[in-house]
Amino acid sequence: MYPGYPKYRELQYGHADGNQWTAAECDVSMRPGWFYHPEEDDKVKTVEQLTDLYYRSVGHNATLLLNFPVDRYGLIHPVDSANAVNFYKNVQKQLADNLLKGVLPKVSNERGGKYTAKAVTDGDYDTYWATEDSVTSAVIEFEWPAPQKVNRMLLQEYIPLGQRVQSFVVEYNKDGEWLPVKLNEETTTIGYKRLLRFETVTTDKLRINFTESRGCLCINNIEAYYAGETHDVFTAKAEELRTYPFTLPQVDEAEAGKCADKDAATTCFVDGNTLLIDLGKEQTVSSFHYLPDQSEYNKGLIAAYEISVGTEAGAVNQVVSSGEFSNIKNNPILQSVYFTPVTARYVLLKAVRMVENDGPMGFAELGIQ
User: Fold this and answer.
1) Do both 243 and 363 map to the same domain?
2) Which candidate in 50, 282, 331, 343 could, as Cys together with 87 as Cys, close a disulfide (CB 3.0–4.6 Å)?
C-alpha cells in the first residue's frame, strides 16, 4: 500500500485467498459531512440510525470509526454527544442477556480433545470448537428447557487460524420442523464477529447449519439474545426484493417481465392455478416471495397455496410448504413463505384457493431466495 496504489479498489473487498487477515474499517460521520455546520444540528444521526450502523459494520466483521465534527469552540455539540451516549446504551441493552451462556450444544462433528462444542459457550476467546480436518460442513444445535424469544445472534471464528466459513443458515424449531429465521441479509462469511438481526421467534431449539467452509470449522463463540421489539423491518419493498434470476417458461416473455421489473405498479397475470418458475440452474432455495396486484381492484389474489420444488421440469413434486396468505384480501402486501433450505432448479406455485374464483392469478413481483 502506498499513495497512488493502482489497485485501490481491491481494498473494498479483499482477497479470499490472501495470506493475511485485516479488519475492514467503516468510516462515518455523525453528521451529513465531516465538518460542523450549525444548520445541520437537526440532521445528526439518530440513535436508531447509529444502532443500524453498528450492526452493519461491527456486526459485519469490521470496525466502526465514528467521526464527531467539533463546533467552532472545539467542542462536540450536545446533540451529537447525547445521541452517541444513547446509541451505546441501546446496543448494550439489546445485547445484555446472552441466552446461550453455559448451554452445552450438540454437534454433528467435532475434533475432540479441547476442541469440543462446549468451547463456543464458555466465554473464553482462545478456546474453540473444531471439526475434523476433512469436515467442512457441520451442524451445531442448542436447546433450552423452555421456549425463549430470540431475535439476535452473534457468531465468531477463531481468527488466529483464519477466516473460513463461506455459507451458513440459522434455523429454529417450530412444531418439530426446522425453519430458517427471517432476516434481511445474506449469511455467508462470519470472520471475527458477525451479528445477525432477525424477526423474533419463540422456540426451545436453535441451530446453525454451516453449509460451506474453506477448511475445517473453528468457531469460538456463539451467543443469542432477545433485544425486545425494535424498529427493524424484515419485509422488503418491491424495488428492494432480492431474488435469484428466473424465467417463467409457460408465460409470455413480455408478460413475465412484469413480475421481475422491481415495479409494484405492473402486474403479470397468469391463467390457471399453477405457475412454474425456472431458476436456470440448481440453487439452494429457502423462501418464496409474492407481491399481489397493487392496483385499485387487487386482481388475482391467491388465498391458499402449495409450493413444490424439483431439479427437473417434469418432476417438480417435492412439497416444501403449504398454507394460506392470511387476510390478503384486506391487506395485499408482500407475502413471504420460508421453509427448510433445499436444492432445486424449479419452483411450482399452486393456487389451492383464490379470493375470487374467476380470473387469472396476479403477480406484481416474485422473488425466490
Assistant:
1) yes
2) 50
Q: 112 lies in which domain range?
A: 106-225
**Burial class of residue 326, CB neighbours in 10 A (0-12, 13-18, 19+):** exposed
Residues 73 and 135 in one domain: no
Cα 255 off chain centre by: 30
183: closest CA among 201, 156, 159, 157? 201
Which CATH number fits the domain that encloses residue 334? 2.60.120.260
| Overall number of domains in the chain | 3
Per residue in 263-315, pLDDT (tens digit) is: 999 999 999 999 999 999 999 999 999 999 998 788 999 999 999 999 999 99
Sign of the four-CA dihedral 11, 14, 18, 24: positive
Q: Count CB neighbours of 71 within 10 A.
A: 15
C-alpha 91: how far from its chain's center? 19
- Give the contacts of 223 (CB within 8 A, at least 6 positions apart): 95, 98, 99, 100, 101, 121, 153, 154
pTM across the whole model? 0.70
Give the position of cell 409457460: 250
Among 125, 190, 127, CA closest to 155? 190
